[in-house]
Amino acid sequence: MVMRFGLFIMGTESGTYQDILEQVQVAEELGFDGVWLGERHFEHGQLLYSSPFHAAAAMAAKTNRIRIGTAGRILALDHPIHVAEDAATLDILSGGRLDLGVTRAGLDERFHQIFERPVEDTRQGQFEEALEIIVKAWTCERFAYEGRYYQIPEISVLPKPLQKPRPPIYVVAVSRLTMAFAAQKGYPVFIGALQTPRELKETLTFYWQTFREAGHNGVAVDLPVNRFLCVGESNAKAREVIAEPFWSFIQHKAPDLKLALQGKYGEKGFRLERFLEDFCIFGDPDLCVTRIKELQDIGVTYLMCTLNFITMEHKLCLKSMERFATEVMPHFKEAPHGELLAGVTR
Amino acid sequence: MKIGFYATGSGTSTHVDLLRQIEYADETGFDSAWLRERHFHPDHQGRNFFTSPLVAASYIAARTKHIRIGIASRILPLDHPIHIAEDGATVDVISDGRLDLGIARVGENELYQLAFGVTTEETRGRFEEAVEILIKAWTLPQFSYHGTYYSIPDISVYPKPVQKPHPPIYLVGISSGTFKFGATRGFPLILAGAQPVAIVKRTQEEYYRLLSDHGFPAREIELPVNRFLYVAESNQQAIDETREALNTFIHRGATAIRDYLFRAPEEITPEWLYDEVCIFGDPDTCIKKLNELKQAIDLRHIICTFNYYTIDHERCRKSMERFVKYVLPYVR
């Protein structure tokens, strides 16, 4: 079974946009299927990405094949017509390589306060309305909209995206409610980096069950599952390299993850050994392959790799990507040996 | 004289055609390429970058080396000023300091406001507050703002632009209220509409006077002027290839353009446009007309419009190429 690999591009704190663009070019050369960008504002956006579409446009200009996705645009902060227009433009500029990931709310409530879209609205229908408007703007020649949060007179939004009927839409789903909404609509969801294989299995079961109950058929879409990864010569070497950037990331750069981890593991369990058991894949190539195969066995088809932490040096990011692509990815790119043999004997 | 390229679509240009033209402009020494903002506009069937000029600018920044990338202009009240600050700074960083940001208060009709959920009455206030917020976001490590329309607690906005103190801000507008506001800030005015020479001259003089009144060294501020160009092999060819297209272009309900011409619609004939507005003809005629124009007005920065959405792209492209080969070297 083939596994697809995306790369979550976080940027490096000391790096420049040129470094980021290099990482994306290298990701393309190394055979990653896609790159994904988050959206952050204010001090969180010190390097990336207060303007993910604009960063993505530059990435599109420097690459030819790799898909470029947002993970995800915070729909509440921008008018959905702007999102539809900018995304369609980006889809055209990239030659149809856009994946639009969207999220209900930002990681910091101040985002909502400053852009004057209260976070409560996002839980009461604003997100769903915005998504509906984006799809209409992309696919209808003309439309009008009368919602609780948006009222739009009859307009025709151009350009239309290059991908038909429209670019794929992915939804960041933290709560079961959002996951159910996405599954009912048939939108694939992102699955966060902190889920243990067992939780992951439950999540996938829930998603696909809701998906089928809503009348959707088959398994047409990948659900990108985020994992923290680092490949080294040995398990010890890999952990030596990644420990500091990883901790510094959790402690200082990812308040949402830190909170979630503290809630989940408590004071006592808040340590790397536990994380390694549950969700971090830091080790030699064998360990990485084994752990990813386990994920594959529970139904994961798309791995969104977090190999580059904002707290890592650019050169180290490149190295980490390269190791992963040359030592781990090939095990998943072709049909495994067993299947081939089975084909021959039959 | 600085030479700009107005990157709007022609009758048949694709997005790729437009991008190629911009890269060509970069390679052949144009100083600037300008993208405008427009919404819900069916004329080019969306074959342009009107709705998202800063997204396109970012792509162009990554594909070009020298050319400055101008936006003429972003309509401030339609978007949150923090977004414009972030998007603009991102483009400035990616282009390594090549962004020129033109700003405007309104687009060409009220539908813009209706669709994006602001009222036309608010646009003046929103525009003026947005300018303040934009500059603060670009230049201050931290700031707060409390206005009638926007209220922002203490925040830091990233990224910061590469250009210091901030990317140049240009003003695009036509109302005296906008002129007055721009002059208090010392913003250069882009004379975006293709106006008769006499009107350009009058507007420039009025704006320079306003700038001086507010203590700015008016003559040091360049006001880019947009002109329609068409360089053909002969004067007759220029007329043959553009007459009908020009007529349709102006009279196709493009009232926004006619507003800039200050003339009754029935008096706007192709002949009048050739005489008063357009620089059309063979290379010698174009050089002569450009030199005359330089005498008549302050023409330190010209933005050339080669593309018209009523003409076949191949013709526009050839006209631009002739300009580069036979006109550009003699007018700089």
Keywords:
heterodimer; A: 346 residues; alpha/beta; two-stranded antiparallel sheet; 15 helices; B: 332 residues; nine-stranded parallel β-sheet; 12 helices; 11 strands
> In whole angstroms, how far apart are the ends of chain A?
18 Å
User: Largest sheet of chain A, described in full?
Assistant: 10 strands, parallel
What sort of overall outline of chain A do the alpha carbons produce when their principal axes are compared? globular
Give the helix/strand class of chain B. Answer: alpha/beta
Looking at how many chains there are and whether they match, the oligomeric state comes to heterodimer
Name the chain pair with the biggest interface and residue counts per chain: A-B, 46 and 48 residues
Regions of chain A with pLDDT < 50 over 5+ consecutive residues?
336-346
User: What is Rg of chain B?
Assistant: 19 Å
β-strand percent of chain A reads 15-25%
Could you say which overall geometry of chain B the principal axes of the C-alpha atoms support? globular
Can you give the helix content of chain A as a percent range?
40-55%
Low-pLDDT ranges of chain B:
none
Summarize the helix and strand pattern of chain B as letters: EHEHEHEHHEEEHEHEHHHEHEH
Please work out how many helical segments of chain B DSSP would assign: 12
Average predicted local confidence, pLDDT of chain A: 92
Radius of gyration of chain A, taken over Cα atoms and rounded to an integer in Å = 20 Å
Distance between the termini of chain B: 5 Å
